[in-house]
């Protein structure tokens, strides 16, 4: 990040005056297509799409040097099953059944990749049909299971990735995934975890995306308040079940070709269908631009849990602690975890600014690697959100006695650095 981009970004957030980033979206009739890597800088992406929280598609020129596009694909553009079997066949992968609905997702099982590829071949031979159903390999943590060397190169536009930086430090998880599946596999209507950003590259094949800007999903809710499972289903046209549907704008539709890269903004609900046999690489990521959205989402999740067990509030002495436990069970994170997330990223940025140690050199993590202006911007965004966290009544009920530093102490450190870096 250069200084002009940082100044522009800080002015943007001051102008929001506490409103959530990206919640007011201009009515769009198309998604921008970015053609040439040499003509599109990090600053262009940051100002044009990341800050305003708008989707875009990058051409296949941005990924043409990826090893996966060369090695995972046959000369005819199909999945290279032989290469995948030889290099990853024994790895166990998660597989979802697209033909079965459990709540608003698909049930999953685990199997060796070689078994899934055997199924896939049989599915193709059966004219894209099988008694086993339509199975989709989803959320495979290849980077955790095996070396990702020569598979892909992280695009600079997505390098400020706090979510995976944090999990790399803990060395227990990540949000980097591979998806593989035959034509007809699909992902139901959803918004990405923690209201993260995401990016998705088709290594081969084609996808159809349906995008809804933040807030539009409210018009799709049914009479019980539930979101649809499939926005292409005829049941969505039932006026008694979906009384507010006429207030919803039509989705933005994008057909993603092989090699192309889709940027999914924070809080945009979407649904994705594979139009051909398709392999994709996908990351979820959070940074200073959507951190406030993540915090707002966590507050909503806690409120939902509290409503569910409100009847026991007066009879349960540790009701608030139970809410936090249930929140983590449902969402994968609670307020304590969120503070730890902020602390880890904050301390790495503070160390960089104090000692010049790049986050990418700390603890073996890939880090952000975008320089002092990015670090200063990050510190400012963490300080603003942490101030809200510290003031939140439910966070004040969390036992922070073992926290080091204490939240108020960390906030003071951040605010001092923000003041000191104004002229950086």
Automatic annotation (TrEMBL):
UniProt catalytic activity: L-lysyl-[protein] + 2-oxoglutarate + O2 = 4-hydroxy-L-lysyl-[protein] + succinate + CO2
| Domain of life where this protein originates | Eukaryota
Q: Which GO terms describe its cellular component?
A: cytoplasm; nucleus
Q: Which cofactor does it need?
A: Fe(2+)
**Pfam families, alphabetized:** Cupin_8
Q: Name one GO biological process term.
A: positive regulation of translational termination
Asked if the record carries the keyword Metal-binding, the reply is: yes
> Which UniProt keywords are listed?
Iron, Metal-binding, Oxidoreductase
Q: Which Gene Ontology terms cover its molecular function?
A: 2-oxoglutarate-dependent dioxygenase activity; catalytic activity, acting on a protein; metal ion binding; sequence-specific DNA binding
The segment(s) forming the JmjC domain are 143-302
The record's similarity note reads: Belongs to the JMJD6 family.
Assembly and binders: Interacts with ETF1. Interacts with the ETF1-GSPT1 complex.
This protein's name: 2-oxoglutarate and iron-dependent oxygenase JMJD4
Instruction: Give the originating organism.
Output: Camelus ferus
What is the primary gene name for this protein?
Answer: JMJD4
């Amino acid at each position: 990040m250069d200084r002009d981009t940082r100044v522009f970004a800080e002015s943007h957030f001051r102008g929001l005056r506490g409103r959530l980033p990206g919640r007011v979206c201009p009515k769009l009739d198309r998604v921008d297509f970015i053609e040439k890597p040499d003509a599109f800088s990090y600053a262009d992406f940051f100002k044009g799409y990341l800050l305003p929280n708008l989707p875009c598609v990058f051409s296949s020129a941005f990924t043409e040097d990826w090893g996966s596009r060369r090695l995972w694909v046959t000369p005819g553009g199909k999945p290279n099953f032989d290469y995948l079997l030889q290099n990853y066949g024994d790895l166990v992968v998660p597989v979802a059944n697209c033909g079965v609905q459990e709540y608003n997702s698909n049930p999953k099982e685990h199997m060796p990749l070689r078994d899934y590829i055997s199924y896939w071949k049989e599915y193709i031979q059966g004219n894209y049909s099988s008694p086993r159903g339509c199975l989709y390999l989803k959320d495979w943590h290849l980077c955790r299971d095996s070396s990702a060397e020569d598979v892909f190169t992280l695009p600079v536009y997505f390098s400020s990735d706090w979510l995976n930086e944090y999990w790399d430090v803990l060395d227990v998880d990540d949000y980097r995934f591979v998806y593989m599946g035959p034509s007809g596999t699909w992902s139901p209507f959803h918004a990405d975890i923690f209201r993260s950003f995401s990016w998705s590259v088709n290594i081969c094949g084609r996808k159809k995306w349906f995008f809804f800007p933040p807030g539009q999903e409210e018009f799709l809710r049914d009479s019980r308040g539930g979101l649809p499972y499939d926005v292409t289903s005829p049941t969505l046209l039932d006026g008694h079940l979906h009384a507010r549907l006429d207030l919803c704008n039509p989705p933005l539709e994008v057909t993603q070709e092989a090699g192309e890269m889709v940027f999914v903004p924070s809080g945009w609900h979407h649904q994705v269908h594979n139009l051909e046999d398709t392999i994709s690489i996908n990351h979820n990521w959070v940074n200073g631009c959507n951190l406030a959205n993540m915090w707002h989402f966590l507050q909503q999740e806690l409120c939902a849990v509290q409503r569910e067990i409100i009847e026991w509030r007066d009879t349960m002495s540790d009701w608030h602690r139970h809410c936090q436990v249930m929140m983590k069970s449902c969402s994968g994170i609670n307020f304590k975890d969120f503070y730890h997330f902020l602390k880890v990223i904050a301390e790495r940025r503070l160390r960089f600014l104090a000692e010049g140690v790049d986050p990418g050199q700390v603890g073996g993590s890939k880090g952000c690697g975008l320089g002092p202006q990015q670090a200063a911007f990050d510190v400012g965004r963490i300080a603003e959100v942490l101030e809200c966290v510290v003031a939140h009544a439910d966070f004040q009920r969390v036992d922070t006695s073992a926290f080091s530093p204490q939240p108020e102490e960390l906030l003071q450190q951040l605010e001092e650095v923000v003041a000191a870096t104004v002229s950086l």
